[in-house]
Design brief:
Order of helices and strands: HHHEEHHHHHHHHHHHH
Number of helices: 15
Number of strands: 2
Radius of gyration: 19 Å
Helix content: over 70%
Distance between the termini: 21 Å
Number of domains: 1
Shape: globular
Largest sheet: 2 strands, antiparallel
């Protein structure tokens, strides 16, 4: 019997195309209705933009519905994969991202951007590097025949660590780059965009499974929320680029300049995680998701925090959005590589 070929979902497969279209729509809106859109940027509560907060929450909540923290009790059975994931995501990735961003934005791009702009571009990259993937990694794991239960454990552990490690790591790296860190806003962002949807997701998970059963929850309830997350992401991008339009039209090359260090970082982390997993003699079904988690980012959180810290029209927010643009095609290339190297 021929094994059916695994394929990514339609929206996920063409996510970069949707992102590009939203960029175009956002820039057009910003050009023709700039003053009207500007009113939305003033709707803030505790320095968090309310429209963006609602959209980002709609992005993150469906992801949190998938998390089953009861699976963490199985961590001790095969600890090597978890240890690799934690080392890559929290001891290596944030620091290499900061390094590549510093090299490119402060040194190589010095003739194109000011030191103040470079600082914010670096800050946006740091926010991406300090937020390991929590949702799309399930797709990458599936496409590379990863162990779904182990992937769930890896993601669940990372979500718990984000609660305590994201703020100090971001604060440390932004401090090194001489960017002022408003810790109250940073902590508030993590509470709003991680803690609240995480608690809401756990409560929903428990209540729905208790009432309707696990099979109904996975096959009927969860699929209904997938379009919500994607639509919220796309609407957020339209809003962001409505504010970024003037910056981009004045310097269209900036998108390419941002994409280069983000691309290098993604491939670098994948190779470090992949070959470390092989050295640890991890099975392919665990090694592959470990490398995918490290390579990809929790860009929803990074976008939200960048907006909260630096504003809708900031270079930092632009970096996190470009991260969304380049991630899907890069990750699809890594899926092909992982399948080619399957062992």
């Amino acid at each position: 019997m021929t094994e059916s070929k695994k394929e990514i979902g339609f929206f996920e497969k063409y996510l970069s195309l949707w992102v590009a279209l939203c960029i175009s729509v956002g820039i057009a809106i910003g050009h023709f209705a700039g003053d009207s859109v500007g009113i939305l940027s003033e709707l803030e509560l505790f320095k968090v933009n309310i429209p963006v907060a609602i959209l980002v929450w709609l992005m993150i909540y469906p992801m949190m519905l998938q998390i089953d923290f009861s699976s963490i009790k199985n961590v001790g059975k095969r600890p090597k994969g978890i240890i690799l994931t934690l080392v890559i995501n929290w001891l290596i990735k944030p620091f290499t991202m900061a390094f590549f961003a510093w090299v490119f934005f402060s040194k190589l791009y010095g003739a194109f951007i000011s030191p103040e702009q470079a600082g914010e571009y670096i800050a946006g990259a740091i926010l991406l590097g300090a937020a390991p993937c929590t949702a799309m990694v399930f797709v990458w794991s599936y496409l590379t025949d990863g162990d779904p239960n182990y992937t769930l454990v890896q993601v669940s552990v990372n979500d718990l660590i984000i609660l305590v490690a994201f703020v100090p790591i971001v604060g440390l790296l932004l401090g090194i780059t001489n960017v002022h860190v408003p810790y109250d806003t940073l902590v508030a962002s993590v509470v709003i965009f991680v803690v609240v949807p995480l608690v809401a997701g756990i409560i929903t998970n428990k209540l729905m499974i208790k009432k309707h059963g696990e099979e109904w929850y996975k096959t009927q309830f969860l699929p209904k929320f997938k379009p919500v997350s994607i639509v919220a992401l796309l609407l957020t991008l339209v809003l962001l680029f409505a504010f970024q339009g003037d910056i981009i039209t004045a310097n269209p090359l900036i998108i390419l300049l941002i994409a280069i260090p983000l691309t290098i970082q993604t491939y670098f982390i994948f190779f470090v995680a992949w070959f470390s997993g092989r050295k640890l003699k991890l099975p392919h079904a665990i090694c592959s998701p470990s490398a995918m988690i490290g390579a990809s980012n929790f860009f929803e959180l990074a976008v939200a925090v960048a907006i909260a810290l630096f504003g809708l029209d900031s270079p930092a927010a632009l970096v996190t959005v470009v991260g969304v643009l380049v991630e899907v095609p890069i990750m699809l290339s890594l899926v092909k590589l992982a399948n080619k190297w399957k062992y």
